[in-house]
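dumping this here so i dont lose it again. seq + smiles for zinc ion
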Amino acid sequence: MSDMNKEFMIYDSMLRKKKPFKSLQPGKISLYVCGMTVYDYCHIGHARVIIFFDFVYSFLKSLNYDVKYVRNITDIDDKIIKKAVAEGVSCDEVTKKFIAAMHKDAASLGADSPDLEPKATSYVDNMIEMIGSLIQNGLAYVSDSGDVCYAVAKFADYGKLARRDLSALRAGERVAADKSKNDPLDFVLWKLAKPDEPSWESPWGRGRPGWHIECSVMASTLLGRTIDIHGGGVDLQFPHHENEIAQSEGANKQKFVGSWMHVGALQINSEKMSKSLGNFFTIREVLAEFDYETIRYFMFSTHYRHPIQYTKENLQQAERSLERMYVALRHSGCDMAPVFTGLEYNNFIDALRDDFNTPKALAVMAEQVKKINIEPAGSGSAIRMGAVLLAMGSILGLFSAGVDGYFNLDSADSVEIDGLVKDRELARDEKDWAKADEIRDKLLKEYSVEVEDTADGSIWRRF
Ligand SMILES: [Zn+2]
């Protein structure tokens, strides 16, 4: 196994460049990722964030780091209240239902649970405390409407993450400006309650926390005032993460995050996914059509910082690429005991050490597939190479179906089938079509195996 003495590079969105990663405490990494607002089923855009950070989590652990991964659950929000009202149920019923659905979907994608999944409503006291500190530090005020707002202009570093032109943003906001705020960019920390909404007692009257404050509070309460890595979708960079910095650094007077990681958007036909455009897919809908390993492969085929194009064709392409890998594994004769060493394995890990470059890592795997396919099936060298391919896949959460599971084999007769498929390929090479057809019939009748001829050779599958 690789170890943590060799450094890895991480692209820090704050610096806009790659830097060698250095954890605050030797051997330990604190990782905070903004999670879901639980008012509906998770969509395929959420799947990208879930799968990518699941991989980051297991990859860092494979480098022998002691990783603590926290992903919050937003269980108080306007959208939740709206849904509860529309369905005539309590907010609690809405959030319970969709938290259970989210757990099911994440597990169906082969993603491990984070170490902690704090719910915002369990940390309201801590939020009230942080808002109090912000008022004390002169960074927050009670507005004319009675809400507590953050005074953005008082925090000198505001805008350092997103690097937005604040005056242009102010001009844009002014049209719809809330007159009770001192500055159009000020955001709400504590919202006064409307009747029939969930609310908590506070020094500023009954109300509920704004969204941004929950992440600052849960990150510092569970991981400390400075954390190693903060992740989330790129759409959260502004204003959510900018506001998290203003809150955490404004209250704690120390640096909030060592490295910021943002996952690019998932686009559908180059457009933003949205319900109103009708191009919206839940994780469940996609899983009904594609295997979860195919979805993982698809997500890893684009670098995490770039936008990814979700199309059926791209998913099908991922499916074929994954199948080629399983075919090579079967050819190798290795279906267990992964080997985490060797030049190829190190090349694979080096790609991932370079800012989690999964497309490059998949290219190393494709090279390994080519090498396996020119070895005699089931030979010692093929088995060794297969064991390395298996190890690479395990880091990405692939190949857990196993060769037999993937090809729907109930017995170990795949070597015989492979032999027949090879004989048929030879017959085709010699243009002995009658023999090729005869073998095809035998495969179908005796083994329920269908053969497909592709540019890379024949692929077979049992039904
Ligand atoms: Zn957050």
